């Protein structure tokens, strides 16, 4: 590898380098301790020094120096991993540089010319691959070490590297941490002790920063049940952020494809660099910006500047940051007053704003204002100002079914009016609408409860749905018209759940409420088919329709599902599970007494799932639950977490004394039944009846406002930033837990040792991912669908199968180029979709008795049968599973007979299996004896059936044998098929030859003959060390290079009918004619002439089985 010329001090270098070649201008040297005469104490010391100092010499122990005769300065210009590589560089210099140097007069000119030439070569080499790196020269050297030490495929992209210590037990190992697209790698070499670690990002369960007495700061990685700690990092925070981004990138790409496809910043994995990850960091900041200010997903953070904002209600300037996006100007204070404001540029005109401050801010704001002035069509009207479809309800259901009686005001209604007055005073002071100031006083009013009349307006404002609706006028009406009459799985589920949504409320006992609910849910399923419809969406939407107009309820649902509760309403509710893990962490931090008395906190996860999915609507009376929804729209998921802690804290004494989970569930249910809203103005006919109202309960009534106020007082210190950080940390664990559950469900279907199945499943899944690591459009990656049955989630194509099968195969013939690996794939791929699942793969390993193994080999040589081609959906899979249970086990009598062509290939397969075995000679003789016996049995049977049939002549046999020699001997990358067509064609071509009777053998005949040969029986019943095989496969899996296949599996299947029959018909005629003519067993010349034994088998006439 050519190096950027660097000056070195040769005086000290002589102690560590040995000169091998030199001339007037160049010197070739070898590092001491390497090559001939290397090793020993010198090798250990030099190797340790090179690793600690991150010297390229550790992996490239050869180098070339440039110097001039009248100068004492030396320049390193090349290094090499092997002597052959450095010699190639040396010879290039001799041929291309040495002659040119003689024309220069001065040493300075010579050195300048050599340096310029080397820099040109480096620039040419790195023109494509290293152009995006921050320091291409150093990165080239690091990449060389990375490739040499870890031997990963060349497609693996190194992102960055750091010096650090890795704690192996209680001893730190100083070395280098390499972070690539798909792997976390570490290498250390100290005094002959080499430590090498390779962990794929998709295998990591936890990734977090930790500290303890020994390690002040370190990065903790949990993978495969083992803890790994990395410390002594110069830039620990930067390293952790990059590791977090790479792990998140891998999880989204391999497991959570929906999130991956939603983010345009995620592109080709081969293009990821450290600079690219900084772009991902900017993308993450945009996500935080949108989440904090509740802006549409199209907005991106463009500029951030510190500034002062004049706060009119406090009459002073507050320090904070101005954040600019494409269509919004936002401000958030930094003094802890939690004051922020959102200004949509569509509402700003030049005569209403006076822009001061830096030129950047003025320019950005003015450009946005100019855009809306030049494009008045973009300045959309506010909510409710555009005509809606007549089919869409324009009133909130609560105003229809519970209109306020202005004349008759009871105490509750008077208190409600007082709340409204408080909010009106707040509006007059802090503003109203999208540009209102959000302050601590706003939160205080939220905690005390939102008036019924203002609830819909404030939900729209706090959630940001008001901006979505304002920028998409008429969108909902169009969706309703387009989705009208559609019939999908989502619409069927919606119809089933319509009458289960708040059935006790009068609004949903009439067609008005049910129709509105149907339209909103169907329109959203039509808008977002990836989510479609999920249970709990109906309950949430019902509450939204009570207080918001139909179109507003739709945009509120969009805000909840797509922004405020991400990944909650997908197939695996990953978002809800992640927040439950966050909830468990908060319980450990804030409720230590509960943790001490309850060892398993997973109970709270199962209980609280409905709390998160329905925002407590499913467990609290409706008049109390809406107060929780108020807080949720203002503070997000933080409000739900705080309330959950408050509920557990309130019931602490009772929960600590529980004997089992059922008792704890009863206590919590009774508590929720006792929660009331004493200020609710709703009449009894509208209020939801508590489950335990008819029973005497010891619970004192708890007011929801007091419970929420207590939650904010005790747990209001929880920061949204900490919640997001905990979400990232727990997402890895949650997804890996789901994957582990998938594995357990798959493994439970087999009757093998759990440890072996676990390792085998991990290998199978890893092979699936290996085909996804280095390409964006891998068939295996595109096919992965978590909604499928467990067995169908991870599947292998033929190329991946053959590579893994070659590492685990029980017999020697199964290599990646083996024809039989294709036959095995064809046999186990029952639905012929070109993919096999884990269950089918286990069938290919040939575990079982001698009879089962022989039956598997026998079935490989049968022609492929017709079966369903295509993807198996869930219902079809269940039906297939039911049929598999009901059908009786296949017996040896059910197998069809094997014909002449297939029998010859079966014999060849047996010979190839035994190649390389210590008992190879006796096994060959046994196969020859069995084959001869079977052929003579069939010959006798044929003569008894056709006594007048003339025997084949010697000339015919010789002619057939000659034809076999002249026929193409291409490698049969085919599947065995029937030879009827080819056989009849050859008979017609022969002309004068009489037609021959088709021979065939049953499996019972083959089995009975082979059972008489102890050598063959012992070979197949020989025990295999499965753990050793799995261990070797795990080490070699990453090193196996995938070879490009020129033709697809389908092409191979089609070609099989032609190539196999063309070749084997000639082979069959030569073989049979030879046996019949000479009335003898298989001889050497027969196998050699028809290429039954390939040259690789090493069979010669001297070593081949002799005829008897």
TrEMBL record:
One of its GO terms (biological process) is glomerular filtration. Residues 943-997 are annotated as: Disordered. PROSITE patterns: EF_HAND_1, EF_HAND_2, TBC_RABGAP. Its main location: cytoplasm. It comes from Salarias fasciatus (Jewelled blenny). One of its GO terms (molecular function) is GTPase activator activity. InterPro entries: EF-hand-dom_pair, EF_Hand_1_Ca_BS, EF_hand_dom, GRAM, PH-like_dom_sf, Rab-GAP-TBC_dom, Rab-GAP_TBC_sf. The lineage of its organism: Eukaryota, Metazoa, Chordata, Craniata, Vertebrata. This is TBC1 domain family member 8B.
């Amino acid at each position: 590898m050519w190096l950027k010329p660097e000056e070195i001090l040769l005086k000290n270098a002589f102690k560590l380098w040995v000169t091998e070649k030199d001339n007037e201008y160049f010197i070739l040297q070898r590092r001491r301790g390497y090559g001939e005469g290397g090793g020993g104490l010198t090798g250990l010391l030099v190797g340790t020094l090179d690793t600690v100092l991150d010297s390229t010499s550790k992996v490239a122990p050869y180098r070339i120096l440039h110097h001039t005769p009248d100068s004492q300065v030396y320049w390193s210009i090349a290094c090499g991993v092997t002597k052959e590589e450095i010699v190639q560089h040396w010879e290039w210099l001799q041929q291309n540089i040495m002659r040119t140097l003689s024309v220069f007069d001065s040493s300075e000119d010579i050195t300048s010319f050599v340096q310029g030439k080397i820099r040109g070569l480096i620039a040419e080499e790195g023109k494509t691959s290293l152009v995006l790196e921050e320091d291409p020269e150093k990165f080239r050297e690091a990449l060389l070490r990375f490739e040499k030490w870890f031997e990963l495929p060349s497609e693996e992209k190194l992102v960055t590297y750091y010096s650090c210590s890795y704690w192996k037990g209680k001893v730190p190992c100083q070395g280098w941490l390499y972070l690539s697209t798909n792997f976390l790698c570490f290498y250390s070499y100290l005094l002959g002790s080499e430590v090498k670690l390779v962990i794929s990002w998709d295998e990591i369960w936890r990734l977090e920063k930790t500290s303890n007495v020994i390690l002040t700061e370190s990065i903790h990685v949990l993978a495969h049940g083992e803890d790994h700690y990395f410390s002594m990092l110069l830039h620990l925070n930067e390293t952790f952020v990059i590791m977090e981004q790479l792990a998140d990138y891998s999880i989204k790409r391999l497991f959570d494809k929906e999130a991956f496809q939603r983010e345009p910043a995620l592109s080709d994995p081969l293009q990821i660099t450290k600079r690219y990850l900084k772009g991902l960091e900017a993308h993450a900041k945009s996500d935080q910006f949108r989440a904090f200010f509740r802006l549409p997903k199209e907005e991106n953070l463009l500029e951030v500047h510190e500034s002062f904002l004049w706060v009119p209600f406090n009459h002073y300037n507050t320090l904070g940051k101005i954040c600019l996006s494409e269509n919004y100007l936002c401000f958030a204070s930094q003094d802890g007053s939690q004051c922020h404001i959102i200004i949509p540029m569509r509402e700003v005109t030049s005569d209403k704003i006076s822009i001061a401050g830096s030129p950047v801010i003025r320019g950005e704001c003015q450009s946005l204002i100019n855009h809306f002035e030049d494009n008045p069509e973009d300045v959309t009207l506010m909510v409710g100002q555009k005509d809606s479809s007549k089919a869409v309800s324009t009133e909130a259901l609560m105003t229809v079914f519970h209109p306020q009686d202005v004349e008759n005001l009871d105490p509750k209604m008077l208190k409600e009016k007082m709340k409204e007055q408080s909010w009106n005073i707040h509006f007059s002071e802090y503003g109203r609408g999208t540009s209102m100031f959000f302050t601590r006083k706003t939160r205080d009013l939220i905690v005390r409860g939102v008036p019924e009349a203002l609830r819909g307006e404030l939900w729209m404002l706090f959630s940001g749905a008001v901006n979505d609706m304002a920028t998409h006028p008429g969108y909902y009406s169009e969706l309703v018209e387009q989705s009208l009459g559609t019939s999908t799985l989502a619409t069927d589920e919606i119809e089933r759940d319509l009458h289960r949504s708040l059935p006790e409320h009068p609004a949903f006992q009439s067609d008005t409420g049910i129709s509105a609910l149907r339209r909103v849910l169907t329109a959203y399923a039509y808008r977002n088919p990836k989510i479609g419809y999920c249970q709990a969406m109906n309950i949430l939407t019902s509450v939204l329709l009570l207080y918001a107009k139909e179109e507003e309820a739709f945009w509120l649902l969009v805000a909840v599902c797509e922004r405020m509760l991400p990944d909650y309403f997908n197939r695996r509710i990953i978002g809800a599970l992640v927040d439950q893990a966050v909830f468990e962490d908060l319980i450990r931090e804030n409720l230590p007494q509960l943790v001490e008395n309850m060892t398993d906190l997973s109970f709270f996860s199962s209980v609280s799932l409905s709390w998160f999915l329905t925002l407590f609507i499913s467990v609290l009376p409706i008049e109390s639950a809406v107060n929780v929804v108020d807080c949720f729209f203002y503070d997000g998921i933080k409000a739900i977490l705080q309330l959950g802690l408050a509920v557990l804290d309130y019931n602490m004494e009772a929960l600590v004394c529980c004997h089992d989970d059922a008792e704890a569930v009863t206590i919590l249910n009774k508590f929720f039944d006792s929660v009331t809203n004493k200020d609710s103005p709703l009449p009894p006919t509208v209020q939801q009846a508590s489950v335990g109202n008819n029973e005497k309960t010891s619970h004192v009534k708890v007011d929801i406002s007091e419970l929420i106020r207590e939650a904010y007082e005790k747990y209001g210190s929880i920061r949204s930033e900490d919640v997001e950080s905990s979400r990232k940390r727990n997402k890895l664990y949650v997804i890996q837990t789901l994957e582990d559950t998938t594995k357990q469900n798959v493994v439970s279907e087999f009757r093998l040792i759990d440890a072996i199945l676990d390792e085998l499943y991990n290998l199978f899944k890893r092979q699936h991912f290996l085909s996804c690591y280095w390409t964006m459009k891998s068939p295996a990656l595109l096919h992965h669908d978590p909604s499928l049955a467990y067995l169908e989630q991870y599947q292998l194509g033929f190329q991946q199968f053959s590579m893994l099968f070659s590492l685990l195969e029980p017999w020697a013939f199964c290599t990646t180029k083996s024809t039989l690996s294709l036959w095995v794939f064809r046999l186990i791929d029952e639905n012929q979709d070109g993919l096999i699942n884990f269950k089918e793969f286990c069938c290919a390993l040939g575990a079982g008795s001698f009879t089962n193994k022989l039956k598997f080999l026998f079935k490989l040589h049968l022609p492929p049968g017709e079966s369903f081609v295509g993807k198996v959906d869930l219902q079809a899979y269940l039906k297939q599973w039911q049929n598999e249970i009901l059908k009786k086990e296949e017996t040896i009598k059910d197998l069809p007979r094997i014909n002449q062509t297939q029998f010859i290939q079966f014999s060849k397969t047996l010979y190839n299996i035994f190649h390389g075995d210590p008992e190879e000679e006796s096994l060959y003789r046994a196969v020859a004896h069995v084959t001869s016996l079977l052929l003579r049995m069939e010959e006798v049977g044929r003569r008894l059936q056709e006594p007048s049939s003339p025997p084949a002549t010697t000339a015919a046999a010789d002619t057939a044998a000659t034809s076999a020699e002249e026929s193409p001997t291409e490698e049969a990358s085919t599947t065995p098929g029937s030879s009827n067509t080819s056989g009849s064609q050859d008979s017609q071509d022969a002309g004068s030859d009489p037609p021959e009777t088709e021979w065939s053998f049953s499996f019972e005949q083959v089995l009975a003959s082979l059972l008489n040969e102890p050598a063959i029986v012992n070979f197949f019943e020989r025990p295999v060390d499965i753990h050793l095989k799995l261990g070797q496969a795990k080490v070699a899996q990453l090193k196996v290079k995938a070879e490009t296949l020129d033709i697809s599996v389908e092409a191979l299947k089609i070609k099989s009918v032609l190539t196999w029959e063309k070749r084997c018909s000639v082979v069959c005629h030569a073989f049979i004619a030879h046996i019949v003519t000479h009335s003898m067993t298989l001889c050497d010349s027969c196998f050699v002439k028809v290429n039954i034994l390939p040259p690789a088998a090493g069979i010669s006439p001297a070593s081949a089985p002799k005829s008897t």
